[in-house]
UniProtKB/TrEMBL annotation:
Residues engaged in binding S-adenosyl-L-methionine: 117, 137-142
Gene: trmD
UniProt catalytic activity: guanosine(37) in tRNA + S-adenosyl-L-methionine = N(1)-methylguanosine(37) in tRNA + S-adenosyl-L-homocysteine + H(+)
Main localization category: cytoplasm
Cellular location(s): Cytoplasm
Source species of the chain: Polynucleobacter meluiroseus
GO biological process assignments: tRNA N1-guanine methylation
Pfam families: tRNA_m1G_MT
GO-annotated molecular function: tRNA (guanine(37)-N1)-methyltransferase activity
Leading EC class: transferase
Biological classification of the source: Bacteria, Pseudomonadati, Pseudomonadota, Betaproteobacteria, Burkholderiales
Function: Specifically methylates guanosine-37 in various tRNAs.
Entry EC number(s): 2.1.1.228
Coiled-coil positions: none
Protein name per UniProt: tRNA (guanine-N(1)-)-methyltransferase
Amino acid sequence: MRFDVVSLFPEMFSALTQWGITGRACEQGLASVNLWNPRDFCTDPRKTVDDRAYGGGPGMVMMAKPLEGTLAAIKAAHQSQSVVSGPICLLAPQGEVFSQKLAADILTRGNFTFICGRYEAVDQRFVERNVDLQLSIGDFVVSGGELPAMSMMDAVIRLIPGALGDGESAVQDSFVNGLLDHPHYTRPEIYENLSVPDVLLGGHHAKIADWRRQKSLELTLKLRPDLIQVARANGLLTREDEQFLRTL
């Protein structure tokens, strides 16, 4: 999986490329993160990437030309390496909220370009001419698109076969089957007078699977009841699931 990331602060991405699961995936060649700074494609001595907004108002607006120059360099790099360019995504508050489903969809694209917005906004003409989709990580505003981009790439990289030590880890994550994940326990068996549920100690795999499914349903109904409705609408709930939900 290849990511091209346009950012005024490319150094921030060392947190993704040098640490943990994502760092190992990059080291193993399962994912590559290629960083591009728009300042490198400015033609003026001050390397200006932003200017005041027409019509007035607070904040600065990222200019279209440096960003388009950056995209041109990315496309040239793709062509020289026989890489098929994928979608171009702008990280912006008005974008579609990212989800596990979108993470799986991005993985199928093979190559993906993130534009990390900064300041007040990005010139709308750049958006209309170049951007295929806009994404956000929620209904709140952060200082730039770098942290959202890293969060999304982390979610995608986890899904790459071989990125996790155990392939079942990604399958059992929250949201993969439309529900929240079940509770987890480890040693010691008793901690501060709290015991691990007996069913997890018995070694009966079918009973453990049933317990985990029911706890997943129970937790989802308690914390994210909206997901129950979505799972039901998408046919992800079995007759046994519905019978259990009626007991809660």
